[in-house]
Amino acid sequence: MADLPELPDLTPGEAPPPPPPAVSGAPSLLQTVLATLVVTAMAGAMGALFAVPPPAPEPAAKAEPTPGGVVPAASGLFEMPPIVTNLGSPKDTWIRLEASIVFDAKTVQHPETLAEDIAGDELAYLHTVALSQVEGPIGLENIRQDLNERAAIRSGGKVSELVIRTLVVQ
Predict the structure, then answer these.
(1) CA torsion 166→74→159→95, rounded to 10°?
(2) Distances (CA, A) of 73 to 76, 152, 157, 158
(3) Is the alpha carbon torsion for 66, 161, 75, 69 positive or negative?
(4) What is the pLDDT of residue 65?
(5) Which region holds residue 25: left if phi is over 0, alpha if psi is between -120 and 50, else beta?
(6) How many domains, the chain?
């Protein structure tokens, strides 16, 4: 066994000797408790900081700006019904288009009727498109320009832009 210090013989009524002084550099129990409390408080504060949800975004206006420019205040924005059809080539490839039309609210009385007419025309056009025409950023830009042009022609110039929300080719 290790060398153990001998305990002094105590007589009744005699006080025990004081403990040996702490080794210098070793933390005391009080320092350890304080350090643990500080670290725990910091961890709790960080956890509370990350637990708070971010502020909710402000609601968007009805007429949203488009990449091509800003929607005028007198314009209306109407969501067209989704268009789903197969492409002209290859026949087993399908396309789904969700779009909105931007129109002059003063000249268009029934945007839903106008949107249905444009959707029918866009459906017929997309049914003739080949997959190679849709591929890549240039293909997407060409399809967007073609759809915008067809919407303007079908509406007699009342639709200023057709905004593509989603375009999925499968």
Answers:
(1) 10
(2) 8, 19, 18, 15
(3) positive
(4) 47
(5) left
(6) 1
**Prediction pTM value:** 0.55
Angle in degrees, 0-180, between the axes of helices 136-155 and 111-126, rounded to the nearest 10: 140
Per-residue pLDDT of the chain (170 residues; tens, 9 = 90+): 556 666 666 667 677 767 666 555 566 888 889 999 999 999 888 888 777 776 777 665 554 544 444 445 557 888 999 999 999 888 899 999 999 999 888 888 888 888 999 999 999 999 899 999 999 999 999 999 999 999 999 988 889 899 999 999 98
**Residue 69: its pLDDT value, please?**
47
Question: How far is it, in rounded angstroms, from Cα 33 to Cα 127?
Answer: 75
Q: Is the peptide bond prior to 90 cis by the omega test (within 30 degrees of 0)? A: yes
User: What are the respective helix, strand and coil percentages of the chain, to the nearest 5?
Assistant: 35, 20, 40
- The answer to whether position 123 is within a domain reads yes
- Look at residue 97 and tell me if it is in a domain: yes
| Residue with tokens 């200023």, as numbered in its chain | 160
CATH code for the domain in which residue 125 is found: 3.30.479.30
Q: The tokens of 16 are what?
A: 């025990």
Do residues 143 and 163 lie in contact, with contact meaning Cβ atoms separated by under 8 Å?
no
